[in-house]
Design a protein that fits this description.
By secondary structure, the protein is α/β, with parallel strands linked by helices. It folds into two domains: 2-169, NAD(P)-binding Rossmann-like Domain (Rossmann fold, 3-Layer(aba) Sandwich), CATH 3.40.50.720; 173-274, 6-phosphogluconate dehydrogenase C-terminal fold (Orthogonal Bundle). Helix content is 49%, strand content 13%. The protein has helices at residues 12-24, 37-45, 72-78, 94-104, 148-160, 170-192, 205-211, 218-227, 229-251, 255-274, and strands spanning 2-8, 27-33, 51-52, 62-65, 85-88, 111-112, 114-116, 137-140, 164-167. The strands form two sheets. The protein has a six-stranded parallel sheet with strand order 3-2-1-4-5-6, with helices on both faces. A three-stranded mixed sheet has the order 7-8-9, with helices on one face. Helix 3 (72-78) packs parallel to helix 4 and helix 9 (229-251) crosses helix 10. The protein starts with a strand and ends with a helix.
Length: 276
């Protein structure tokens, strides 16, 4: 059994990994670097970690960097010579790898880039859930420099939380998740700008389903949008084009064209559902 895990950031993702790894017996000791004093105190009180540290112990076997995506490269630079395995949870991979390459001069062999597809709109240590990753996908975007033995260890730790593993190219990952994750969050944030308290008594399931992710953490998502803007902006332009198509048929009163657009969307969703 691996001896020690250090976690940078014990919010939803870091705290959930700590709980799941503790339940699985993956590590005998779990410590955390958490600059937010309130979060650090809650992580200790909830038993997520055994100790809060002021710096990452040199003899830890593994370091999970679970801070906002834009802070990951600086941690990778700090930990480039650490003897343990370093893995992260950043939602953007290509930009993180590029920034690390630029600052360090190479991609550290001890770094295994990961993205668990298991986020919620909640945040902080109190949101931690030992089952958060169960049956969820974890994407690993290993680079050519990534040490394969360390990669296998990281795969095992994620599998011990109940997760499934898939490998992807980092920049392909960013293109896919710009559409399936980043764009929907952006749309929810934009939509909620126009909703006021007096509208709430007149909302139903559609409002709750669509607006739920609009409660997500602002620091995390503003960082994601900035890091992945090269992939996100074309998706946003494509969405704007589709939105303009609906605007035109509504403005002109072309009910047949409006129905055709809706029917095309319904048919496509059925096809997607059939594909799983």
């Amino acid at each position: 059994m691996t001896t020690c895990l250090s976690i940078v950031g014990v919010g939803l993702i870091g705290g959930s990994f700590a709980l799941a790894a503790r339940n699985a017996g993956s590590f005998s000791t779990i410590v955390a670097f958490e600059p937010d004093e309130a979060n650090a105190a809650r992580a200790l009180a909830l038993g997520l970690v055994d100790e809060v540290v002021s710096e990452i112990p040199a003899d830890c076997d593994a370091v999970l960097v679970a801070c906002p995506s834009d802070r990951v490269p600086q941690w990778l630079e700090t930990l480039q010579d650490h003897s343990g395995v370093v893995f992260d949870t950043a939602s953007v991979k290509g930009a993180v790898l590029a920034a690390t390459q630029a600052s360090v001069g190479h991609l550290p062999a001890n770094y295994v880039p990961c993205h668990p597809i298991a986020g919620l709109e909640k945040s902080g240590p109190d949101a931690a859930d030992a089952d958060l990753f169960r049956d969820k996908l974890v994407i690993i975007t290993a680079a050519a420099a990534t040490d394969r033995e360390r990669c296998k260890r990281v795969e095992r730790w994620w599998q011990e939380t109940g997760a499934r593993i898939e490998h992807m190219d980092a920049f392909e990952h960013d293109r896919v998740y710009a559409l399936t994750s980043h764009l929907p969050h952006l749309l929810a944030f934009a939509y909620l700008q126009g909703v006021a308290a007096e509208h709430l008594p007149h909302t139903g399931g559609g409002f709750r389903d669509f607006s739920r992710i609009g409660a997500s953490d602002s620091a995390m998502w503003s960082a994601i949008f900035e890091l992945n803007k090269d992939a996100l902006l074309p998706r946003l332009a494509e969405f704007q084009k589709n939105l303009d198509s609906f605007r035109r048929v509504i403005e002109t009163g072309d009910v047949a064209a409006s129905k055709a657009l809706i029917e095309a969307a319904r048919t496509h969703r059925r096809e997607l559902a059939d594909d799983g």
